[in-house]
Amino acid sequence: LTPEETRSIGERKRHKRKLGVGVIGLGHNGIAFVQGYLNNPLCELKAICDISKGRLKDVTEEYNIRSAYNDYGILDRDDIDVISVHTSDHLHTEPVVKALEAGKHVFVEKPMAMTIDDLAKIVGAVKRSGTKLMAGHILRFNQHFRMVKELVDSGTLGRIFYMEGDYVHDLRYQADPARYSEELGCNWYLEREIPMVGGGIHPFDLLRWFVGCNAIEVKSYGNHVAFPAMKSDDCMAAIFKFENGCLAKVAATYGCVSPYAFCNHVSVYGTKGTVNRDKLCLEGFGERWADLPPLSGEGHPYDPEIDSFLRCILEGTEPPVDVVDAANSTSAVITAAEATNADKGVKIPLFSW
Ligand SMILES: NC(=O)c1ccc[n+]([C@@H]2O[C@H](COP(=O)([O-])OP(=O)(O)OC[C@H]3O[C@@H](n4cnc5c(N)ncnc54)[C@H](O)[C@@H]3O)[C@@H](O)[C@H]2O)c1
């Protein structure tokens, strides 16, 4: 037996029963999760769902999946414990709330929602359901960022007073006519995507996780120059003020000229040390930069993310990114996007248990 097979048998014995999983939304991201669930010994992928019959057929055939739904009938299945939601950014709330009301545990991709009202609906539904929700803040599972978190938590960097995070991508390929959805009647990326919310949430959530407290106010700017096919401003930059006085700058821009994928630069400045992307400088160790392990190609480690969610359901523990945690990261970037070019700083609505 390979180590993986031995581990898999051990897991199955320990947890006795596999969790039944259903996946809603079968784009690039949903398919990556279909693969992840198929490979995980703690669960069994029972069914998939998409409003596009073509996608449903393709994925069913490619992965030999026996049960496929074109509607929310997937939620009526008693053998499904977990629903994993990978629909377009602006279409997370309905399947998430319906799944929670059907008594399912829910994984939902970032951004959990695109309005404060929708965040409130999801937080309320989780509180009523008694089941668990985890949001897909994938970069918290990236080894490079976990190391930065350890440097902050151990006090190595001292008191954190300033941070920067960028989501800088050339996403102009999203204008490809093949991205048009007959079912949605649009290319949602061009019509509904908001860079600070869909992209900026990645670095913002990391920064909020590093300092361990909420951002309370934001001032932001935007322009619409580099990717005019998008309806929204395609470049946004915001300054956040946190509860502990720390400041952070977050930028999200979708039309820069760069190789794919070029993104997620994070710097953290503390009274005893600085992390500047993949360099570290500590007070008392000479005026020099030391190399940190670089932000590698494993930028989107879905397997450990999936594994940690399944484990928290089986073991009755809290998810690493619970609904209130995700709501407070998402609320901050939604407020930043809505406050674009406002005269003064805007207060960020916060959620609690
Ligand atoms: N964590 C990450 O790093 C990461 C990376 C890529 C995408 N994402 C997120 O994953 C989500 C999906 O992104 P994508 O690029 O795969 O999008 P996509 O448009 O390619 O796929 C979305 C799919 O959802 C389907 N859909 C929409 N509404 C539905 C509904 N109500 N019921 C069933 N199916 C429905 C669409 O038909 C489509 O097949 C987005 O929220 C995106 O932000 C996250």
Task: Describe the protein's architecture and organization.
- The strands form two sheets. A nine-stranded mixed beta sheet has the order 14-13-12-11-7-10-9-8-15, covered by helices on one side.
- It contains eleven helices and 15 strands.
- Helix content is 34%, strand content 22%.
- The termini are far apart.
- Nicotinamide-adenine-dinucleotide binds at residues 24-30, 49-52, 55, 86-89, 91, 95, 109-110, 136, 138, 181, 183, 198, 300.
List descriptors.
single chain; six-stranded parallel sheet; binds nicotinamide-adenine-dinucleotide
Report a brief summary of the structure.
This protein is an alpha/beta fold and 353 residues long.
Give me the secondary-structure topology.
Blueprint: H1 3-15, E1 19-24, H2 28-39, E2 43-49, H3 53-63, E3 68-69, E4 82-85, H4 93-101, E5 105-109, H5 116-129, E6 133-136, H6 143-153, E7 160-168, H7 188-191, H8 195-198, H9 201-211, E8 215-223, E9 235-242, E10 247-253, E11 265-270, E12 273-276, E13 279-282, E14 290-291, H10 302-315, H11 323-338, E15 346-347
Parallel strand pairs: 1-2, 1-4, 2-3, 4-5, 5-6, 7-10
Antiparallel strand pairs: 7-11, 8-9, 8-15, 9-10, 11-12, 12-13, 13-14
Bound molecules: nicotinamide-adenine-dinucleotide.
Order of helices and strands: HEHEHEEHEHEHEHHHEEEEEEEHHE
Strand content is: 15-25%
Q: Structural class given helices, strands, pairing?
A: alpha/beta
Write down the Rg. Answer: 21 Å
Q: How many helices does DSSP assign?
A: 11
Our measurement of the CA-to-CA distance between the termini, rounded to an integer number of angstroms, reads 45 Å
- What is the average per-residue confidence, as pLDDT, rounded to a whole number? 93
The strands making up the biggest β-sheet line up spatially as 14-13-12-11-7-10-9-8-15
